[in-house]
Amino acid sequence: RSPWGSSSSTSERRRAQRNIFSLSLQTGYAFDSNVTYQGETGSADIISGREDGKITNLLRIDYVPHTSQTSALALGVEVSDSRHFLVDEYDLQEFAARARYSYQLSWNWTLDLQYEYAFAQLGEDSFLSNHALSPSLTYHWRQRGNRFAFDRTTLDYRIEARDYFFHTEPEFDRDGFVNGVGVAQSFLIRPLPDCDWTWVVSTGARFESIATEGSEFDRFAQTLFGSVEIPFENPLLPDRNLTAQVFGSCEIDHYRHDSLIDTRRRAERDDIIARLGMVLSQELLKTLEDGDLNLHMGIIWNDSDSDVRTRGFGSPFTYDKWVAGIQLQWRF
Q1: Alpha-carbon separation of residue 18 from 2, 65, 293, 297 (angstroms)
Q2: What is the pLDDT of residue 3?
Q3: Considering the entire predicted model, what is its pTM?
Q4: Which of 316, 324, 287 is nearest to 10 (CA)?
Q5: Which of 323, 243, 282, 248 is nearest to 56 (CA)?
Q6: I need a labelling partner for 174 at 20 to 30 A (CA). Which of 11, 65, 114, 296 fits?
């Protein structure tokens, strides 16, 4: 059977081609009230305490070399670049490559296995290399036509091998492994019975064990998260999709050892990290010939509270920040 489908029309060939190969470009501006580097971790690795604006660019390429009725193999490459106006030592370049194999066990069950490699350069120095392997199992409820319906239930396991390139004291070495399990549930909700207005609500939890070669950052992390995606109609562009997404999470990190920099020598260290954000996405263009053009505007608030106290620096892991930005995305 031809991979381009049974139709010989140009539109059908373009649609099939985009399902096999796609290119995405993003560019935008964001203002950060407290420039930090978080990378692959939940809590911030490096905190500047300074506000700054930045220009962000991202290129993503996706390719599906194999697809059938029961399985698919997807490959992807992503390159991103963030340039600050003042705090240039926090300029960030990231490269990621991933391979994902999906197999449909039955009408309702899907098994996925994904491998991902990520490399980050901070400023002009290599900073982090990360390998991750993640199998997941998803149940598709296949319920439609109701005001409330279960959509998908996903259970996943993820193991990461992190290698930090900067030199530090052995006790503060962050190289090591991360093991995590997570569960996520999404729902479809129609608030109005006579209107085809569907909200997508997602919630879940994640539990991680972070074991490093040092002792300062060994911890257990528990995260609760949720989001709601609501479609709207823009009177200025009535034939284009407008979507609002509100999301939030709360992460609790329990550290296994006393902090070496805490002057009070507390028996335990706990961090609480709260995040809340909203993104508006406006579809500007959607054609088979020119691709999809979308405008994203968002704001994210982050608050971290740690019980570590030092004599010279006060509370080095307690901070808050907000980031607001606008981004243009083109996918072809």
Answers
A1: 15, 12, 15, 26
A2: 34
A3: 0.86
A4: 287
A5: 323
A6: 114
